[in-house]
Automatic annotation (TrEMBL):
Quaternary data: Homodimer.
Record field: catalytic activity: pyridoxamine 5'-phosphate + O2 + H2O = pyridoxal 5'-phosphate + H2O2 + NH4(+); pyridoxine 5'-phosphate + O2 = pyridoxal 5'-phosphate + H2O2
Annotated InterPro entries: Pyridox_Oxase (IPR000659), Pyridox_Oxase_CS (IPR019740), Pyridox_Oxase_N (IPR011576), Pyridoxamine_oxidase_dimer_C (IPR019576), Split_barrel_FMN-bd (IPR012349)
Function: Catalyzes the oxidation of either pyridoxine 5'-phosphate (PNP) or pyridoxamine 5'-phosphate (PMP) into pyridoxal 5'-phosphate (PLP).
One Gene Ontology term of the molecular function aspect: FMN binding
Name recorded for this polypeptide: Pyridoxine/pyridoxamine 5'-phosphate oxidase
Annotated residues for binding of substrate: 8-11, 67, 124, 128, 132, 192-194
Keywords: Flavoprotein, FMN, Oxidoreductase, Pyridoxine biosynthesis
Gene Ontology biological-process annotations: pyridoxine biosynthetic process
Alphabetical list of PANTHER family matching this protein: PYRIDOXINE-5'-PHOSPHATE OXIDASE, PYRIDOXINE-5-PHOSPHATE OXIDASE
EC class: oxidoreductase
Pathway(s) per entry: Cofactor metabolism; pyridoxal 5'-phosphate salvage; pyridoxal 5'-phosphate from pyridoxamine 5'-phosphate: step 1/1; Cofactor metabolism; pyridoxal 5'-phosphate salvage; pyridoxal 5'-phosphate from pyridoxine 5'-phosphate: step 1/1
Gene3D superfamilies named in the record: Electron Transport, Fmn-binding Protein, Chain A
Length: 214
């Protein structure tokens, strides 16, 4: 057994107080996002964990890249026929989470996922490098394949088929917008007395704000 009980760290880089937060969680997310980006521009600050409830009833989490956020919510792109796509089609309740260890911060977002409009998906797909476009076409994401060679051979064939041609977005590939219902901000503090501030969406489009015990 690997005993990790002595893995400890003191969190002392910042604080999260009610006197210094906006009424809207998206504004606070924007502030934190760019602070982390400025602090360490070498990492993928937009990497987030997406958790869904699978068709087998089990939760599953995986890391994807956030591609846009606004007052409407958080957008990422994937294959609609993937495991997570099928999960969201059955149960659109999802959780997004960001962990930024360099600033001892986490953000946890509960929300509802829905497909973006086709023009939004088209616009992002058109902005991708050619290799990424072909990767989206060739991959039947989450399906069992016989080998790596199988995938690479199919890619080589697609490269020949689309040589000198535009690559259209596959109908089974596009964006999801996650509309937040609850957003929790976690700031590490000394002695495990971490700051936790939770925003909860209200029926009048405002947000209630609570402090949670660490």
């Amino acid at each position: 057994m690997n005993d990790l009980s002595n893995y400890r760290k003191s969190y002392e880089k910042s604080e999260l107080l009610e006197t210094n937060i906006p009424e809207d969680p998206i504004n606070l997310f924007n502030r934190w996002f760019h602070e982390v980006e400025d602090f360490d521009g070498s990492g993928e600050v937009n990497a987030m964990t997406v958790s869904t409830i699978g068709l087998d009833g089990f939760p599953k989490s995986r890391v994807v890249l956030l591609k846009k956020f606004s007052e409407e919510g958080f957008i990422f792109y994937t294959n609609y026929n993937s495991e997570k796509g099928k999960a969201m089609a059955q149960n659109p309740n999802v959780c997004l989470s960001f962990f930024w260890p360099e600033m001892e911060r986490q953000v946890i977002i509960k929300g509802i996922a829905q497909k973006t409009s086709e023009n939004i998906s088209d616009g992002y797909f058109d902005s991708r490098p050619e290799g990424s476009k072909l990767g989206a076409v060739v991959s039947n994401q989450s399906e069992v394949i016989p080998s790596r060679t199988f995938l690479e051979d199919n890619l080589k064939q697609l490269e020949k088929d689309y040589e000198g041609k535009s690559i259209p977005r596959p109908e089974n590939w596009g964006g999801y917008l996650v509309t937040p219902l609850q957003v929790e901000f976690w700031q590490g503090r000394a002695n495990r007395l971490h700051d936790r501030i939770r925003y909860t969406s209200q029926s009048d489009f405002s947000w209630s704000i609570d402090r949670l015990s660490p």
